[in-house]
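Just curious: can you write a single protein's sequence together with how it folds?
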Amino acid sequence: MPNNLPVLPRLMVDDAVKAALLEDWGRAGDITSQATIPATATANAVIAARKPGVLAGIALAESAFRQTDGDLSVDVVKQDGDRLEPGDVVARIEGPARALLSAERVALNFLGHLSGIASATALFADQIAHTKASIVCTRKTTPGLRAFEKYAVKCGGGSNHRFGLDDAILIKDNHIAVAGGVVEAVEAAKAYAGHLVKIEVEVDTLDQLKQALGAGPDVVMLDNMAPDMLRDAVAIAGGKALLEASGGIELDTVKAVAEAGVDLISSGWITHSAPVLDLGLDIEIS
């Protein structure tokens, strides 16, 4: 389990889960459970992994049960960041059966989605563990879930890029086109930014890289460069700025990109296209 995981504030977790529960319950609640299960019935259940992966989002799953009925007891067995194998028990839940089943889907939706992101991130991170590079996420996240998805990236051994438009300056090709050039854009950003604001600029040629380095950004994003070109970029930069490789990097290419010597590798895929990790809830029959 990573030892640098941030803490998800309970208020933020509970608000997101409450909205999801209200969406699922609609106007009348879980009419299936109400129709088929006696109000006094209790049940024991386990959430377990059906595929290998990395866990993320246990606090949201726990919140779904807790907010549905305070009499539901959740025993968390695995922690966020833990590696899972098929059959591993993640949590045990016991208490009112109707409430348990009413919370099931919301709990599993959060858990499967975030664990999928953590698992995808871990696949990339494992490929580049022998290099100095780190895998980082982007702003390509599900609206409303960015904080949780970026947290899941951390669970998988990755790092976070900026959270929004307000916490760092990232000058991309369209900014450069309007500003009049790489140097002009970086210089304008440096004149605008406060002393705590980092400045990154995107380039797609080695000539642009040389121009950018002369303007003194903190980070240069190397967009859609092949490994050989990345190696040339690393040599040209000579440590003057952090270098981030970006653009269509996949699991079968990330190792070569990292071995080119870049500091960071950004991937939108790990948040916007990671498959859900298959976890299931089953009632234990005694």
